[in-house]
Amino acid sequence: MIATYFNALMVVLGSFIGLFLKHRLKASYQEVVFTSSGLITLVIGFSMAMQTGSYLILLFSVVIGGFIGYALKIEDGVMSFGSWMERRLSRGQGSAESARNFALGFLNASLLFCSGAMTVVGAIQAGTVGDYQLIMVKSIMDGCMAIIFSAAYGAGVMASALFILLYQGFFTLAGGWLAPILGEAGINELASVGGVLLLMIGFGLLDIRKTKTGNFLPAMIIAPILALISPAVKNLFPVFGL
């Protein structure tokens, strides 16, 4: 778990730097921060989405996951949790707008830091063979992105360190039995769906299209499952070509 703690620490430190810069930026420069973070998020999202081994798996994962997420109203729940955290930290002194920004920062940063293959593979390597190199590299990258995101969204980005501890810590502790189940194909499909979610965040930052990204979180569970069963489906129904 040492690497996971280090990753969370880098996000906290990066967030402090971003908050320091945010309060010293003129309003006219804040557009630069949003545009830069949006474009960088799009680049990361595209690179991750292209890791898919089957566009049909990617399509079905996002569609089915979206249906489930909207039915369960996942984003509303995450936003409510983020707003609750903001109220607790500000002792009820924050405005509705600040609570919304806090919740968005928590949600989007959590997706950014935990949706990639580096998270899963690095955590599994750290937990099974004690190889921390990949997670350490990811930690530095996350710290840099935390600077940009916290300058755009605020303190909610720092709260995503809690999600890193839970999500990445789970893969670190359970990596021994998860790795054979997921396999390389499952990890790649999980990462590709994560890339699609980052594209949604990027388009939102650029004010191109606002999407309730949190409602698509179940797609990250559906994708490895479809990757696992796709060989059997292909044998039974070659026409689908999954």
UniProtKB/TrEMBL annotation:
<keyword id="KW-1133">Transmembrane helix</keyword>
<keyword id="KW-0472">Membrane</keyword>
<feature type="transmembrane region" description="Helical">
    <location>
        <begin position="55"/>
        <end position="72"/>
    </location>
</feature>
<feature type="transmembrane region" description="Helical">
    <location>
        <begin position="190"/>
        <end position="208"/>
    </location>
</feature>
<dbReference type="InterPro" id="IPR007563">
    <property type="entry name" value="DUF554"/>
</dbReference>
<feature type="transmembrane region" description="Helical">
    <location>
        <begin position="146"/>
        <end position="170"/>
    </location>
</feature>
<protein>
    <submittedName>
        <fullName>DUF554 domain-containing protein</fullName>
    </submittedName>
</protein>
<feature type="transmembrane region" description="Helical">
    <location>
        <begin position="32"/>
        <end position="49"/>
    </location>
</feature>
<feature type="transmembrane region" description="Helical">
    <location>
        <begin position="6"/>
        <end position="25"/>
    </location>
</feature>
<keyword id="KW-0812">Transmembrane</keyword>
<dbReference type="Pfam" id="PF04474">
    <property type="entry name" value="DUF554"/>
</dbReference>
<feature type="transmembrane region" description="Helical">
    <location>
        <begin position="215"/>
        <end position="233"/>
    </location>
</feature>
